[in-house]
Design a protein that fits this description.
Blueprint (H helix, E strand, L loop, with lengths): L2 H30 L1 H4 L15 H16 L2 H4 L6 H24 L11 H13 L2 E2 L15 H13 L4 E2 L5
Antiparallel strand pairs: 1-2
Helix pairs in contact: 1-5, 3-5, 5-6, 6-7
């Protein structure tokens, strides 16, 4: 593969992971995988959550792609793009960890952004946590955040329609 193809593959797979994360969050974590995810939506003082197991799933995806791309593992049937896709998944995992666990949930550092896109990310994810239980909700992605004012409107509409139970602080 050319350097350009490698760079584009890494970038495309990193970006694609936001869609994978959004779909996994909406349909797996808030669906049949709620048992692992529910403790993430409740206040606690624990260092780890069952929800952290989803990070291991992401790591397994990355490692699997590295293996598929590795001649040491796959021999002559290695598929080189697998290595670069695995790297893109790894990069997304790092971005996710810094933004979601670090910035939004402040598990690694304490900094509350006062303006800009970082503030928007925090607001959007806080609105995601405004629902009680797995039903309804907004903002299932982790890196691309929609306008918090629109997310609030969606939450109010979901509450009015009986789709979601929204915590009182949202209004």
């Amino acid at each position: 593969m050319s350097i350009l193809a490698i760079i584009l593959t890494i970038m495309a797979s990193t970006l694609a992971m936001e869609f994978v994360a959004w779909a996994s969050h909406k349909y797996i974590m808030h669906g049949f995988g709620w048992g692992w995810h529910c403790d993430h939506h409740e206040p606690h003082d624990k260092t780890f959550e069952k929800n952290d197991l989803y990070g291991l799933v992401g790591a397994a995806m990355s490692i699997s792609m590295f293996a598929i791309g590795s001649p040491l593992v796959m021999g002559a049937s290695a598929w080189e793009p697998g290595t670069w896709i695995g790297l893109g998944i790894l990069f997304y995992g790092i971005i996710y960890t810094l933004i979601h666990d670090g910035l939004v949930h402040q598990r690694y550092f304490k900094w509350v952004p006062k303006r800009g896109y970082a503030k928007r990310l925090v607001q959007a994810h806080k609105l995601h946590h405004a629902t009680i239980g797995k039903e309804g909700g907004v903002s299932f992605g982790f890196v691309f955040a929609r306008d918090p004012a629109r997310l609030k409107q969606e939450l109010k509409a979901q509450r009015a329609a009986g789709i979601a139970v929204v915590r009182d602080a949202i209004g």
